[in-house]
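We now fix the convention by which a protein and its fold are recorded. These numbers are not coordinates but entries in a learned vocabulary of local backbone shapes. A record is reproduced here so that you can trace the correspondence yourselves:
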Amino acid sequence: MAVRFDPSVPEAGDGPARRPSDMLEEVIDALTEGLAIFDENAVLLRFNAGFSEMNPAVADLLAEGLDWSILLREWVMRGGLSAGDAERLSFMEARLAGGDWMVTPLEIEAGDRVTEILLRSTAAGGFVLVQSDVTERRAFEETERAADQLVRKVLESCPANIIMSRVGDGEVIYRSPAATELLGSAEHTHAHFASRAERADFITAVLPDGRVDDMPVTGIRADGARFPSLVSARLIQYRGEDVLVSSTIDVSKEVELRRRLAAQREQIFQAEKMSALGELLAGVAHELNNPLSVVVGHALMLRDEDISDDVLRRVEKISDAAERCARIVKSFLAMARQQPARLVPMDISETVETAVGALSQSAEGLGAEVSLDISPDLPPVRGDAHQIAQVVINLVTNADQAIGESGTGGRIDISLTHDAAAQMVELRVADDGPGIPKGIRSRIFDPLFTTKPVGSGTGIGLALCHRIVTAHSGVISLAEGGQGATLLVRLPTTEADAGNAPSQKDAEISAGRGAVLVVDDEEDVSDLIREILLRDGFEVTVANSAETALDLLAGQDFALILTDLNMPGLGGRGFYERLLRDLPAMARRMGFVTGDTMSPQARGFLDGAGRPFLEKPIAPDELRRLARTMLEGGA
């Protein structure tokens, strides 16, 4: 037979039955929160131990039947609650009475503890007060808030360009001030890339692994200018969506530095190439210069002889070919040697006119029509007239050859103007020829680079021009645009008083004639020098060694001594040093005629001696000019 269990009837052996109200009291007291129940008249019906412990200031006052308003008043008077908090709790209770079922919690501080009070209405018209200790939670929140503030402060002051953006539409969620300064304040990151294709490549690179490091892209600055940059990024989850955190580094300075280093490496390479070329040419030139001197010198003198037109034509062909060989050798030597220019105040107008006139009157002449436009009253330029003339000759010759070989154009315009603001004189050589292809414009000043057929060019002309102009503290460049090619040479002017320098006409003093001692181990060369000087009215004695010359000087006085540098035995250097020691007056009358100006030893000796020298191959006019200058006390 089944037995019905009635929980209200105690079983045999049990104590008195527990009432549900007793169980409810135990549950309420076991709560960690403070609990107080008020009826519809705001009278305290029940409270638990938690409420008493959280509010020690009114713990002794708590009892059933306590009015809500009295509780608030005593709570304030005993220091457990501020007047403002009491006013807010009273307002919250009024809202519940007005029909609200729950009011926003209120935090109150009492000593080092923070509690949160929540009021909630009951079905009977009263309300329940629930009080929770939130001290630890508030401490944690304060720590988190401080950490967030620290992170924000670091990001705001960090020099790195940091941007948070959505992957899908590129909308910017956050950007650091440094990023705003560099990239501007556009709403989407599309504006930070030079093209949509670059941003698409960036997204494609970052998605597979969620990261990308130092990806090169072209960025857009806040002012709209483009710049090279490196972008690194990480893919993260933020509020349920994919977000990119990226950093952009401006590498403009690094790119420019790499460009400069590359240019410097190229300069070093060219210098090494020219140094190697110089070492090779030093030996070759020494062997070529002596026979070339003989060919050039005798050919030039034969032109003055009374010979038939047919023979004269052949002599001129020999002379032109020999002079061309001599010019090629001297160009290579000048390029490899990097001889410093002798800068003095000079009339650049006269130099340009002389150079153009020499080209026009040469045997080959100029095929193109040349116009010369020189501004009046140009200031003097500090330079080496011979080297500037070489620049003009090379530029005009190149233009004329380009026009002749291409069959395009037929005019070369040369102008000289003064840029007073920059204190520069500008030489412009413009032609209407085929121009220079874009692909090689950056190489036209490189040594040994030429577009001419084999045998027609050495690749030295423009490189030599560049070196000469640079040595004069000037600039040579290829102008952009226009028909044909336009080369610009800008040279600094000088404030030197041109009037203080003697003019060429004033310096034309009748050359005094005197005895000349020529010392050279090559008999053909010494005979050539002797013949040239004899025709100019000098008395010439020849010695084929330094030792023989010393013997001659022991018993004879000479107004001028011209000696080779490299000879067997004592040689030109030993000869000069011996004269410095024994006959210093004679040493001051010495000049050198040599084919070796390339080697460091010869270059160092000539610079240290400070005596005039003439470089082989010998041209009669140059030899006569050297002799006259030395006799007139100009060297």
Remarks:
- The longest helix spans residues 252-302.
- Confidence is low (pLDDT under 50) at residues 1-9, 453-459, 495-512.
- Residues 449 and 459 are 5 Å apart (CA to CA).
